[in-house]
Amino acid sequence: MASDRTYPPLPDALAVPVYDDHTHLDPAIHRDEPGLEHLGWRAQLDRAEAVGVRGVVQVGVDLETSVWSAEHAVQDRRMLAAVALHPNEAPELAASGALDDAIAQIAELAHRPRVRAVGETGLDFFRTDETGRDAQFRSFEAHIDIAKQAGVALQIHDRDAHDAVVATLLRVGAPERTVFHCFSGDAALARLAAEHGWYLSFAGTVTFKNAPALREALAVVPRELITVETDAPYLTPMPHRGRPNAPYLVPHTVRFMADELGMPVDELAAQIAANTVAVYGSWDDELDAILTDVAAERSEAGAL
């Protein structure tokens, strides 16, 4: 039976707004996910805002989506950008001799207005075998350096590579604001991350029945180090697992987490919002000046 590729209904709105700190709204998603219901990125942001999701971090996974993210973050105050080469991109780029040039382009994008993170970068030993791991390490370390140079956060993709990711961060030095995107570790890794002040971003996976280790991790991480994400259109939270994900579904995850932690939803939402701004900065900063400059440039170009 074909899966339902339409988006679920809107949940009840959160009274205290939060942010989705990792999502994919770029058009490439529709190419990579055939059959996905088409909703434009602004329509997605409208839906999110309507249910108390004030803004998103739009994340690049290659040069195309990183450029898109950087260019569109300056068009709407509800979006910030993260730019990077996904770890599974690194072996292919290295094999073609294009990795160094691609990393250099990411470094340039990282200094663009409203780019507030380098990500998603890291290590993925699930899809990449040992022959491609040298390229992944090389790319990961370069991205860590880019985040430090640009003074932005680091968003880590860590799949089946917990020990290697931690060892790399400790060896080369993690950026001041480091986030484990879609945290997939256990309570021990959560405690270790907390010792170093690394943030853990929880996705819809924490609501899955087969994820008790994630709930154990959630229980031990300090509240001031928790953020929330969708990784849309993937990892849709219960009760809509299997259908496409979107930023407006964050309230399901927040309410589930609050219940697990025995906290009022409003209290957890306020803490998550404060944590997210501490990592990425304000969604409102700079945009008015940027839009004024863009309008002036377009007016000047039209007069030529």
What overall geometry do the principal axes of the alpha carbons give?
A: globular
Q: What percentage of residues falls in helices of 4 or more residues?
A: 40-55%
For the biggest sheet, the summary is: 8 strands, parallel
The total count of strands amounts to 8
| Helix/strand class | alpha/beta
Strand line-up in the sheet with most strands:
1-2-3-4-5-6-7-8
Number of distinct helices: 12
Q: Percent of residues in beta strands?
A: 5-15%
Give a verbal description of the structure:
- This protein has 304 residues and is of the alpha/beta class.
- The protein is built from 12 helices and 8 strands.
- It has an 8-stranded parallel sheet.
- Strand 6, helix 8 and strand 7 form a beta-alpha-beta unit.
- The chain is globular.
- The model has no long low-confidence stretch (mean pLDDT 94).
Task: Give the key terms.
alpha/beta, 304 residues
Quick recap of the structure?
With 304 residues, this protein is an alpha/beta fold. 44% of the residues lie in helices and 15% in strands.
How do the strands and helices of this protein lay out in sequence?
Layout: E1 18-23, H1 28-32, H2 41-50, E2 53-59, H3 63-73, E3 79-83, H4 90-95, H5 99-109, E4 115-124, H6 133-150, E5 153-159, H7 162-172, E6 178-180, H8 187-195, E7 199-202, H9 212-220, E8 226-228, H10 250-261, H11 265-280, H12 287-303
Parallel strand pairs: 1-2, 2-3, 3-4, 4-5, 5-6, 6-7, 7-8
Helix pairs in contact: 3-5, 5-6, 8-9, 10-11
